[in-house]
């Protein structure tokens, strides 16, 4: 919890949901049936507060037959994309652009 803490996360959910409850469809991970969802690209890092949730969601997508690419990058915390000129950010940018190219059928 270096940058994004549990307290900040709760604040963000409160802002996002308002008076709604943490349930589907407002929280996609809470949806019971994931079949038929479009392909997913999930990139998480080992020191991220959401790492385990991200991995679990990717596994649920895969079990539902959704084409899913999961990348777990070691050694970074949530918010690593705000630190310019790092190797991990370069790897993330390359991986995300590659996934986007595949998704739209570009080379």
List keywords for this structure.
single chain; 107 residues; alpha+beta; two-stranded parallel ribbon
Task: Characterise the protein shown here.
There is one protein chain. This protein has 107 residues and is of the alpha+beta class. The chain has three helices and two strands; from the N terminus they run αβαβα. It has helices at 6-17, 51-63, 87-104; strands at 40-47, 68-77. A two-stranded parallel sheet has the order 1-2. α2 (51-63) links the parallel β1 (40-47) and β2. The longest helix has 18 residues, at 87-104. The mean pLDDT is 87.
Number of DSSP helices? 3
Helix-and-strand structural type: alpha+beta
Order of helices and strands: HEHEH
Rg estimate, integer Å: 15 Å
The global form is: globular
Largest sheet: 2 strands, parallel
Distance between the termini: 37 Å
The low-confidence parts are none
How much helix, percentage-wise, in residues?
A: 40-55%
Strand order of the largest sheet: 1-2
Number of strands: 2
Beta-strand portion reads 15-25%
Question: Could you tell me the mean pLDDT?
Answer: 87
SSE inventory with pairings:
Layout: H1 6-17, E1 40-47, H2 51-63, E2 68-77, H3 87-104
Parallel strand pairs: 1-2
């Amino acid at each position: 919890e270096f940058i994004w803490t549990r307290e900040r996360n709760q604040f963000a959910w409160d802002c996002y949901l308002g008076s709604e409850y943490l349930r589907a469809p407002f929280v996609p991970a809470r949806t019971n049936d994931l079949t038929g969802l479009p392909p997913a690209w999930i990139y998480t890092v080992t020191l991220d507060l959401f790492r385990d949730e991200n991995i679990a969601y990717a596994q649920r997508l895969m079990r539902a037959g959704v084409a899913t690419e999961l990348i777990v990058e070691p050694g970074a915390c949530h918010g690593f994309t705000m630190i310019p000129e790092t190797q991990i950010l370069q790897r993330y940018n390359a991986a995300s652009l590659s996934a986007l190219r595949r998704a739209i059928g570009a080379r």
